[in-house]
UniProtKB/TrEMBL annotation:
Superkingdom: Eukaryota
Provenance organism: Rotaria socialis
Name of the featured protein: MULE transposase domain-containing protein
Length: 154
């Protein structure tokens, strides 16, 4: 391990993990936009692409019920999803920004492995929103020359 010349104040901060966590969080937030407070925010372009500059934001729309539906997935991830016979879905309510109601994820199962393939932020929990989300994935499959018809969707 290399020795670093730090002030005694900096050394004291390093001994407290909570201080380090807070400091890292402050620094990280200097580089990223604030979490939106309303559904009418604009997604910065850099968050619509993967690190390899492939499209990542699949859909950004207002639902029939007036909520917002964002679906994130690259073509590579969608290809895995559409080739999967078994698709596992999961929704969580506790880890989303307050303006959204749910983060819904789709995981493909191929070659004895489970892959996260699509991530949707839902502005409401209405049946029509879930239907729209599935329809959007089916539309994406058609545009890629395939179908989204897993044997099992759970």
């Amino acid at each position: 391990m290399r020795k670093i010349n730090l002030s005694s104040e900096a050394q004291q901060l390093l001994t407290h993990p909570q201080h380090m966590k807070a400091a890292f969080s402050r620094e990280r937030h200097k580089c990223i936009p604030n979490i939106p407070q309303s559904l009418d925010f604009i997604i910065p372009h850099m968050y619509t692409l993967t690190r390899g500059f492939e499209r990542f934001l699949l859909n950004d729309k207002t639902t029939v019920s007036g909520g917002r539906l964002l679906i994130f997935s690259s073509n590579t991830q969608l290809d895995e999803l559409f080739k999967s016979s078994y698709v596992f879905c999961d929704g969580t309510f506790s880890t989303v920004p307050l303006i959204f109601n749910q983060l819904y994820t789709f995981h493909g199962y191929r070659r004895n492995e489970v892959f996260p393939c699509a991530f949707a932020l839902l502005g409401d929990k209405k049946t029509s929103t879930y239907i729209q989300m599935i329809e959007d994935l089916k539309t994406a499959a058609i545009s890629m020359g395939t179908k989204f018809e897993p044997l099992v969707l759970m």
